[in-house]
Amino acid sequence: MQFFMLSVLVLDDEPNDQISVKKILEELGYTDINCVTSLEEARTFMKKRLPSLLIADVILKDSTSLELVYDPSIPDIPTIFMTVTQDINIYNTIKDNFRFGFLIKPLSPILLQATINLLFSSYKSNYLEAYKNKILYINQGRKMHKIEGDEILWLESEGNYTTIVISNGKKYTIKKSLKRTVEKLNNHFTRCHQRFYVNLKKVDGVISENLLINGYEIPIGITYKNTFMNNLNILDNTDK
Fold first, then answer.
1. For site-directed labelling of 14, which of 33, 115, 135, 198 has its Cα 20 to 30 A away?
2. pLDDT digits 0-9 by tens, 57-106
3. Which of 132, 157, 182 is at the close of a domain?
4. Structure pTM?
């Protein structure tokens, strides 16, 4: 990727710091740079034109830039947070998110470019992996069907074949083992029986030795019961 072609939005309410960051970016070869001083300005800008990269001061005068990146109305983009305080709590808040970077002010040009490189490499690989795990394409004769992972209710083994049941009632049978099929999906799927994997997000409840999913009952095997139940977020009816 030619990083100098990225569009960058700088969010900082300190004019001198804003000028400094913009100057560093220009020295690194970036030309499409815009600057804003508040969350409201940033929201307005990003809804009109989404930048490739956001560089934001964590602590603003009346808020924090974390509010912006966790705003559900704003699409996820790679973001570098910067701050003058070496606050471990701020770092711990963002360190496990693949689209976030963290730098201490004043910024070093070399560290800034290195962070951009690493951030986009991580963002690309994680985003593609997440996308891949949400989509299945199934060949049926001459037609290829696209299925969203969240549409799938359960997968059922039938020998060397697997039947995929989706929420609109349609079923697709493919010549692939249950284990090989579920490897293509995300971790919302768990085994409840030798023959079944179910989408945990679609489970409506459990009655005796069966789970309920979209009006159907799926058996829970003795071997898999403890693991399956542990994967449910169960709130016990106790004071403990």
1. 115
2. 999 987 889 888 888 788 888 899 999 887 777 777 776 677 889 999 99
3. 132
4. 0.54
Backbone angles phi, psi at 23, to 5 degrees: -65, -40
The CATH number of residue 197's host domain is 2.40.50.1020
Same domain, yes or no, for 121 and 8? yes
Residue 31 covered by a domain: yes
The residue range of the domain holding 39 is 3-132
Distance CA 130, CA 23 (A): 35
pLDDT bucket at 217, cuts 50 / 70 / 90: very high
Give the chain's largest Cα–Cα span: 68
pLDDT tens per residue across span 148-176: 778 899 999 998 899 999 988 899 999 98
Here the tokens at position 96 are: 């496990």
Tallying the residues shown for the chain, one arrives at 240
